[in-house]
């Protein structure tokens, strides 16, 4: 985002924090309604452009949002939306993407209020691994030749009754608006967002063999000392590594695998 959109996004997020002062039901309703607003904006280009048009006064944009969504969403959602449309956005896309982020954060805060955010984070991570290990499923969920509603319905059939409601809502919305790096990456982003709301960072670990609970705890403790912040460790078994582990934290990559050591040895001998 450019500077104007970063400032606008920050103010919108402050409005969300102020709005979510009630029970977890307020957060859940706000998140679901923000996703519904985004669906309307995705379908109506003229509306989303008008709501983010900084050549028009903020009061006029707020009035338009009230006319379109007033009475159809809760007071909390309307307050967040009014703040968002009153900001000056560098791009219309930044405005809509921020509403998506606010919806995600609201739903995750609802899960946190219920003491279920750990479960949601773990389920999102595991969904990412399931999709990556199943190319046919990944293709079906990322097939833009199919309507977004069809991709969403496919995922809903797979998840109903098997994951937290919050996990299902986040995953289905991500698949419906999929773009960029793919389904697995979208789920990983959501898992990382859940960790960040708990003031933690996520370590994505590929291990040649399944790690014991003691090994996971030792790795988490070592990474916490390195990053000076609590670390959530997500492990994926990858026998192709032969031995050892590969750890990714954000943009940092720590390759302690046998394959990695062999590659570095070949490079040194070349």
Q: Taking all residues together, what is the mean pLDDT?
A: 91
Please outline the major beta sheet.
4 strands, mixed
What is the domain total for the residues?
3
Q: Strand tally, please?
A: 4
Structural class: alpha+beta
Cross-sheet strand order for the largest sheet: 2-1-3-4
Runs with pLDDT <50, length 5+?
none
With helices defined by DSSP (H or I, 4 residues minimum), what is the helix count? Answer: 13
Radius of gyration: 21 Å
Can you give a write-up of this model?
The model has no long low-confidence stretch (mean pLDDT 91). The protein has a 4-stranded mixed β-sheet with strand order 2-1-3-4, sandwiched between helices. It folds into 3 domains: 1-114; 115-194, no CATH class; 199-269, no CATH class. Helix content is 66%, strand content 9%. It is built from 13 helices and 4 strands. It has helices at residues 3-19, 24-43, 45-51, 58-69, 75-85, 92-113, 117-132, 135-141, 148-159, 165-176, 183-197, 213-227, 258-269, and strands at residues 201-207, 231-237, 245-249, 252-255. The protein is of the alpha+beta class and 270 residues long.
Write a short abstract of this structure.
The chain has 270 residues and is an alpha+beta fold. The chain has three domains: 1-114; 115-194, no CATH class; 199-269, no CATH class. It is built from 13 helices and four strands.
Which helices and strands, and how do they pair?
Layout: H1 3-19, H2 24-43, H3 45-51, H4 58-69, H5 75-85, H6 92-113, H7 117-132, H8 135-141, H9 148-159, H10 165-176, H11 183-197, E1 201-207, H12 213-227, E2 231-237, E3 245-249, E4 252-255, H13 258-269
Parallel strand pairs: 1-2
Antiparallel strand pairs: 1-3, 3-4
